[in-house]
């Protein structure tokens, strides 16, 4: 059985004015590099370049989870799953966007520019 994840654009609902940076859990800091060859620096770059945020209601039972579709300084298009704990962004995972996600990102980024 397939399950679909409902993503709701929350670009205007997230308040990053109180965010003080990133928090990396020791178990996750190298996970994205080992699995997808994505450095923590690249994951963080997505938050300052052209990006689109979504709320992930399927994976938000314990804490609110979000995804950000964005681009690194070198032009790599990523999807980063994260939560906000206190005043820090905690990255859960990061990977390259697949072709469907790239189309979605390019469409949404164009609309929001």
Distance between the termini: 37 Å
Shape, principal axes of CA atoms = globular
Rg result: 13 Å
Summed over residues and divided by their number, the pLDDT gives a mean of 84
Number of helices: 3
Number of domains: 1
SS elements, strand count = 6
> What is the strand arrangement across the widest sheet?
1-3-4-5-6-2
**Element order: H for helix, E for strand:** EEHHEEEEH
How large a portion of the residues is in β-strands, by DSSP E? 25-35%
Low-confidence spans: pLDDT under 50, at least 5 residues?
1-7
State the share of residues found in helices, binned by percent.
10-25%
Class based on secondary structure composition and strand pairing: alpha+beta
Could you give a short account of the major beta sheet?
A: 6 strands, mixed
Written overview of the protein:
InterPro entries: BrnT_sf (IPR038573), BrnT_toxin (IPR007460). It comes from Candidatus Roizmanbacteria bacterium CG07_land_8_20_14_0_80_34_15. This is BrnT family toxin. With about 110 residues, the protein is of the alpha+beta class. The chain has one domain (about 5-110). The chain has a six-stranded mixed sheet. The chain has helices spanning about 30-35, 40-45, 100-110, and strands at about 5-10, 20-25, 50-55, 65-70, 75-85, 90-95.
Keyphrases for this structure?
113 residues, six-stranded mixed sheet, 6 strands, 22% helix, BrnT family toxin, BrnT_sf, BrnT_toxin
